[in-house]
Amino acid sequence: MPRVQRIASVLSYVTLVLMSVLVLAAIAFLIQPEMARDILLEAAPVGRMDVQPGAGTLYLLQIAGWPVLVLNLVVLWNMYALFCLYAQGDALSPSCGAHLRRIGLGLIVVPFLVMAYGAIASVLLTWENAPGARELTLAIDSQGLGFVIGGALLLFVGMSMREAAALAEENKGFV
Question: Which of 174, 117, 160 is nearest to 140 (CA)?
Fold first, then answer.
């Protein structure tokens, strides 16, 4: 088995493990929301909370984060499928281009969903504050810009692969 195929095979398993860990963590956090307290509070861009969030607020924070989780799982699933294609030696097919495009689109959308989650979380976490002390926080960071640029690159490569595969198929007809 060539080196690229071996590496792709290993990465496909790593991707499956990562997806499993994300799903199991989400389930564990639903069962025990206190386990997620620090993670959820750290992810939310909030200035001042007058009251520490209870279990109900922690559940709402988790629900608000589900779109981000689902998008991450979709991106990881497409990575898994792409690595499987590479492991089978099918590196230049229209399917590879389609998976690259989906990964790119997902990476472009991630920062916007994270920003929306932060805004929702800031409202949920400051809801118990006195009127006038509640917050709606929109946070943008340079990491999000990196996701957008990386996603755009993958989207472009995927589109190029689709066109290259179509041209290769067309050229087969001439031979």
Answer: 117
User: In a 3-state reduction of DSSP, which class is residue 2?
Assistant: coil
Report the chain's mean pLDDT, rounded to a whole number: 87
Distance CA 58, CA 34 (A): 8
Range 127-144 average pLDDT: 79
Q: Which two tokens stand for residue 171?
A: 């050229």
Return contacts of 13-19, CB within 8 angstroms, 24+ apart. 15/76, 15/79, 15/80, 15/83, 16/80, 18/76, 19/73, 19/76, 19/77, 19/80
Helix/strand/coil for 44: coil
Cα 35 to Cα 10, 46, 58: the distances in Å are 31, 20, 10
Digit-coded pLDDT (tens) for 88-121: 998 888 899 999 999 999 999 999 999 998 888 8
């492991």: which residue's tokens? 87
